[in-house]
C-alpha cells in the first residue's frame, strides 16, 4: 500500500459525540461524525447496532439505511452495518453490556426482519452459535455472503467447529464478553485459539479491554494473517469525560477516559480512536508498522470482501485506499519516526 494506508474499523457504535444507536439520529449529526472519522484517517467503518428489543433494532437499522441513501459522506464512510446481537448467550458473564432482557436464541424469521430493515447494509453479524438451533441462521447468512462471527458466546469446541463448517468465519472481540473467572484450560478463549487457522479473530486494542502484554501474547499466537483490531468506539470516542449513551443505555466516562456502564461494573464500548490505537500498538505492544497495517487496514478489508452480497458498494473496502480523507489524513500514516 502507499505511505498513508487508511484505517478500517469493523465495530463503531458512535463517534465524536454522536450515538449511532438512536432512532432519532439526524442526517447532520451522522454526517458530522463521518467527517470526524475521515479526519482521523478512517476510510470506512461498520456502524454497529447492538442488542435491544427487536422493534427498536429495526427502527435503528431503517434510520441508518435511510441516511446512508441520502448523504454522500455517509455513503463514502459507512461500508455497512455490524449487527451485534440480539442472538447472544444468556449465560452469566457472556452478555457484557448487552441487556439480558433483550437477548434471545437465534430465530431465522427475526433475522430476516432485521435484514429487511437494514436494506442490504448488514455485512457482519455477531451471534452465539450454540443458541442457533441446527445452525440455520449461520447457514442462511453465510449463503448470502454475510460474514458471521461468534461472540458473546460459550460454545464447546465441537459446537464452534460445526458452526465454522456451516459458514461462520470470525470471532468478535476475543478476551472480552466472558466471565472474569473461567476454567483454567477449557474456556472460550482457549477454544477459539485452538481453531485460529479457521477463524479471523478480532480484538479491542484500546489498552483497556485487554492489557497490552496480554494482547501481544494473543496476537503472536493467533498470527497477523487472520487477526483484526477494532475500537468498539461509542459516541464518547474523540471526546472527554462525561455522560453519553448507547441507545437507551447510559455510559459514563471518567477522567481515565474509560467507558463504563452507569453503575460502573462493566466496560461499555471504548473512547478509542484509530490513531490512538495505532500508537498504542506500536508503543505498548511493540508491533511493527507492517503488523499494525495488517490489523487496522489489510485484514479488515479482506474480511469485508467476503461480505458483498446485497450491498450496493461491494467494492468499497477494496477501493478504500483511493478515498479522500480530510485535512488530517496524515494521521493515518502507520510509519513512525521512532524505531518500533
Radius of gyration: 18 Å
Instruction: Output the CATH topology.
Output: TIM Barrel
Cα distance spanning the termini: 19 Å
Q: Biggest sheet, strands in spatial order?
A: 1-4-5-6-7-8-9-10
Which ranges are low-confidence, i.e. pLDDT below 50, for 5 or more consecutive residues? 309-331, 336-340
Tell me the number of helical segments per DSSP (H or I, 4 or more residues long): 10
Helix fraction bin: 25-40%
Secondary-structure class: alpha/beta
Largest sheet: 8 strands, parallel
Task: Determine the CATH superfamily.
Answer: Metal-dependent hydrolases
Number of domains: 1
Order of helices and strands: EEEHEHHEHEHEHEHEHEEEEHH
| Number of distinct beta strands | 13
What is the CATH first-level class name? Alpha Beta
Tell me the overall shape: globular
Helices and strands, with pairings:
Elements: E1 7-12, E2 14-15, E3 18-19, H1 27-39, E4 42-50, H2 54-70, H3 72-77, E5 78-84, H4 108-118, E6 122-127, H5 136-143, E7 147-150, H6 157-166, E8 170-171, H7 188-194, E9 200-204, H8 212-222, E10 227-230, E11 242-246, E12 249-253, E13 259-261, H9 274-283, H10 289-305
Helix pairs in contact: 2-4
